[in-house]
Amino acid sequence: MSKEHTSTDVILIGAGIMSATLGSLLKEVAPEWNITMFERLSGAGEESSNEWNNAGTGHSSLCELNYTDQKPDGSIDISKAVKVNEEYQLSKQFWSYLVTSGKIQNPRDFIMPVPHMSFVQGEDNMEFLQKRLDALSKNPLFQGMEYTKDPETLKKWIPLMMKGRSLNEPIAATKIDAGTDVNFGALTRKLFNHLESQDVNMKFRHQVEDIKRVSGGGWKLKIQNLETGKTEYHQAKFVFIGGGGGSLHLLQKTGIPESRGIGGFPVSGMFMVCKKPEIVEQHRAKVYGKAPVGAPPMSVPHLDTRLIDKEESLFFGPFAGFSPKFLKTGSNMDLFTSVRANNLITMSAAGMKNMPLTKYLINQLRLNKEQRMEELRDFVPEAKSEDWELLVAGQRVQVIKDTADGKGTLQFGTEVVSSADGSVSALLGASPGASTAVAVMLEVMQKCFPDKASRWEPKIKEMIPSYGKQLSDHPELVDELHESTAKALNLEQEEEKQGNLV
């Protein structure tokens, strides 16, 4: 069997939003570098980044209640909400730069304005929501958020959710028009199309089987060409592992000390989807509720307007499922083969510490369609089973590692693991993930190319004007960037579609 040997500056593993973002950033700051991308599937954005495999929310903490915890003294901690919002602003600035410089076109193919709302029931939750609004309103990133408990106003904001609703229990909502819906699959494909035009070598149907250090620096990858069956060897000075759920196995193969003691737990998601125009047109918002007491953050229920292939639909969920696969197209052995001697104790501790999560998953797996419809009717009282179908979304692998909180702590965020010499970096974890891709990839660049930081900084600031600043401390810059990104990304509000649909 013939073997191909090639060498390049950068190898990207996985054709998802993270690799697409890192490749796009590197091509701007170091256009002379040679980049090769390997993907086991036949196209870009086919796994976790695919529009049918994620909820598509531009996570900016405008509506996600689990990003604003209530402290024991009753006050609201908004630090995580501010951090996520700041990071999402970096993404919007970079996308705006790519559009205005002609590198990608037609932003409405991947982003559109959609109000973000939080919806609660009961006096205690209403008090929490009011406190949350009061805390967020002091920050310039959250200006324009409104609160109401008036049923008539709510009928204008969320007519589909109010139709047929009993008002025996008090309800309230917040609304902010600065929210977005993002089609990360479409965005990923646009970014890779641009990269291909910049001579990035795109290798689809190529599966990375092994990664080994090369004496003198860099890495050699053993790769199976799934079309020809040939084994190829590719060498690079820097490797980024952005293979979604598949990243953990590849990180383990590197053998770097930083990979030790890290495990992963797969969780699959499901959504109820409605595509009927007469129903879809009655709801134009992303509305997040509160997770049930004791449920994990991933279980926060939400009813989202989505734009996919120029057609709007409604997603409700998520409902959790379980599969030992780390990728939707992965192997049933993924979970078992991820257990190594160096993470066995960590994984075992996680199993003991997360019995509530296990119980939650078991209960979720037992749900039939009608039981899922009953949960949907908490949001849409008159929802009919025949109008909604079940969609199996992508696999998410939650990171398990030892922290100050003890061994086997389950992480619900996004994790970057890099070698000490910066020659390899891997992206693990889930939400808020794609929405903060630019911030996360800038972090990778800072960690892995510290000697290039000063040379690259002017170009990065040209692309991302708030780079190196906290927008929360610069209200005038918030207003300026909100206006410029809205114009570049065609996010001006469409007044005729905002509410008043009764």
UniProtKB/TrEMBL annotation:
<keyword id="KW-0274">FAD</keyword>
<keyword id="KW-0560">Oxidoreductase</keyword>
<dbReference type="GO" id="GO:0008924">
    <property type="term" value="F:L-malate dehydrogenase (quinone) activity"/>
</dbReference>
<keyword id="KW-0816">Tricarboxylic acid cycle</keyword>
<comment type="similarity">
    <text>Belongs to the MQO family.</text>
</comment>
<protein>
    <recommendedName>
        <fullName>Probable malate:quinone oxidoreductase</fullName>
        <ecNumber>1.1.5.4</ecNumber>
    </recommendedName>
</protein>
<dbReference type="GO" id="GO:0006099">
    <property type="term" value="P:tricarboxylic acid cycle"/>
</dbReference>
<dbReference type="InterPro" id="IPR036188">
    <property type="entry name" value="FAD/NAD-bd_sf"/>
</dbReference>
<keyword id="KW-0285">Flavoprotein</keyword>
<dbReference type="Pfam" id="PF06039">
    <property type="entry name" value="Mqo"/>
</dbReference>
<dbReference type="GO" id="GO:0047545">
    <property type="term" value="F:(S)-2-hydroxyglutarate dehydrogenase activity"/>
</dbReference>
<dbReference type="InterPro" id="IPR006231">
    <property type="entry name" value="MQO"/>
</dbReference>
<comment type="pathway">
    <text>Carbohydrate metabolism; tricarboxylic acid cycle; oxaloacetate from (S)-malate (quinone route): step 1/1.</text>
</comment>
